[in-house]
Design brief:
The protein is built from 2 helices and 8 strands; from the N terminus they run αββαββββββ. It is of the alpha+beta class.
């Protein structure tokens, strides 16, 4: 009985921490989505300005074969929180014969203070600077 209780407690603790993580850039990544309609945070930049910010980052830093402006941009329906700030989720799609392929996932803070990309090989968030 004690073993079962201990296993249950360990599973509960692990599940509590599964929603958050810290990566190599020491960014607290909260995997929760925040509705754009429900947030009280005042947006300082628009979605278009967020894309403009990403366009200042060289394609090599974005891990893209061609500049970002060559891709179809699709925004997430909700914010992603990183370091307790709201971020636009930005996806870069390329058109292929059989459909589309997501070439990169990026995040730009709604206040314009930070940018991240997801490393496709390990899923980590990588801070971007231009």
């Amino acid at each position: 009985m004690n073993k079962l209780f201990l296993i249950l407690v360990i599973c509960l603790i692990i599940s509590c921490f599964a929603g958050c993580g810290v990566n190599k850039s020491n960014a607290l990544i909260e995997k929760t989505k925040v509705s754009m309609e429900e947030t009280q945070e005042e947006k300082v930049i628009t979605r278009e300005q967020a894309v403009d910010m990403l366009n200042t980052v060289p394609k090599e830093k974005l891990s893209l074969p061609v500049p970002l402006k060559e891709y179809k941009i699709v925004f997430d329906d909700s914010y992603t929180q990183i370091n307790r700030k709201n971020f636009y989720g930005i996806n870069a799609f390329v058109q292929l014969e059989g459909g589309t392929e997501n070439m990169g996932v990026f995040f730009v803070a709604t206040d314009g203070s930070a940018m991240y990309k997801i490393n496709s090989s390990n899923g980590e968030y990588v801070a971007l600077t231009n």
